[in-house]
Amino acid sequence: MNGVHDLGGMQDFGPVHPEPNEPAFHAPWEGRVFALNQAAGAWRKWSVDAWRHKIEALPPADYLRMSYYERWFAAVGELLVDSGLVTRAEIEGGQPAPDSIKCVPALSADGVPLMRRSGALSRRDDKIAPRFRVGQRIRTRNMNPTGHTRLPRYARDKHGTVERDHGVYVFPDATAHSLGEKPQHVYSVRFAARELWGAEASPRDAVCLDLWDDYLDPA
Amino acid sequence: MGAHDHDHQVVPSDPALRVKALESLLVEKGLVDPKALDALVETYETKVGPRNGARVVARAWVDPTYKQRLLADGTAAIAELGYGGAQGEHIVVVENTPQVHNLIVCTLCSCYPWSVLGLPPVWYKSAPYRSRAVIDPRGVLREFGLELADETELRVWDSTAELRYLVLPERPSGSEKLDEQALAALVTRDAMIGVSKVAPSSRGAGA
């Protein structure tokens, strides 16, 4: 989706503002939102890419106005409703529906260290042949899907070089929409800054992106 | 806040209240355990942070064979020090040298190597950084007080997939006599993102 989240190369957002000694969370509610997303995610009703797509699908003006954890809060509410874990009426009313059956939480306090240590593996052992080899010149596809994608606009229809083959990973354009895993190779692809941004860019600079087979064609 | 406040419940506008309302609902439905939420917050406030990454960097500075393993397979080498898991499942370490400087960004969202750096700072997740790190990286570095020489090669890594990047900064001059622990104390989060260098150790200790 050509959404406002696809920020690479945009201008006029102003300077970067680092904050000295920044805390992990700026208010207790931010920590709760972070934790709610993790704990609700432990039900495994949605993929990380479905979650990312929820955030991307916020109305553009809201996306830019909201703070980071406000976006996370909006996303988890929507995903809870989509997945059927919660109804919209329950969220609006703040109470479980009378016929709601009480569950046992998917994640207990004791389970937190294990969940953190294991993470979520999106790499797959499928024996799938790579479409490209290290050193090969490629051209990214000119594509404008209306769903989730991890090929940013600034890197579409550009020439680059495959730097490294990372192996086989699930394909976010599919997993975000429950269309299966469509596993395929991911490569670090290097683009000269001048290829992306024109003659004004430094001749010594490059941008590397991690891109799936389905984003690439031979140059 | 009295009980009557809930009688005509509409979604409150204050984020703290809205979050509290959702948490209460999920707890009542048995979907989340409040103690698990406490544990998650505590983990990322106290246990997982840039000190982890600093230990990795210091080890690489003192142990050339470790450094080799780290650059060849970041995930496995980092696991040797006990770090891994969520948002550190697949880590690539990129080395700064006098010729090459690396910078990490996620233009599409906020991908960041949690297992070694903790949760990302606000600026890393913000529109100014995400938009300009790829088109004007030297300008961004200048805002962090880092002026790169024209002849330095700058590589920006946009974390578009599930690989997470960590910069191995250059060991600063004047740090030759420091042990691993003292070296780790010099390493900053910003240097491991690539928006700064590790400052020479001579600053405080003299010489």
The helix count of chain B comes to 12
> Outline of chain A, from the CA principal axes?
globular
Helices and strands of chain A, in N-to-C order? HHHHHHEEEHEHEE
Structural class per helix/strand content of chain B? mainly alpha
What portion of residues of chain B belong to β-strands? 5-15%
Helix content of chain B: 40-55%
Q: Roughly what percent helix of chain A?
A: 25-40%
Task: Explain what the structure shows.
- The complex is a heterodimer of chains A (219) and B (207).
- By secondary structure, chain A is α+β, with helices and mostly antiparallel strands.
- Helices cover 30% and strands 17% of the residues of chain A.
- In chain A, strands 1, 2, 3, 4, 5 and 6 form a six-stranded antiparallel beta sheet that branches.
- In chain A, α1 runs parallel beside α4 and α2 (48-56) packs across α4.
- The longest helix of chain A has 15 residues, at 68-82.
- The two termini of chain A are 25 Å apart.
- In chain A, 40% of the residues are buried.
- With 207 residues, chain B is mainly alpha-helical.
- In chain B, 47% of the residues lie in helices and 11% in strands.
- Chain B has helices at residues 15-28, 34-47, 50-62, 64-72, 74-80, 114-117, 122-125, 127-135, 137-143, 180-186, 189-193, 202-205, and strands spanning 91-95, 100-105, 153-158, 164-168.
- In chain B, the strands form two sheets. A two-stranded parallel sheet of chain B has the order 1-4. A two-stranded parallel ribbon of chain B has the order 2-3.
- The N and C termini of chain B lie far apart (60 Å).
- Residues 1-10 and 202-207 of chain B have low confidence and may be disordered.
- The interface between A and B is large, with 99 and 84 residues.
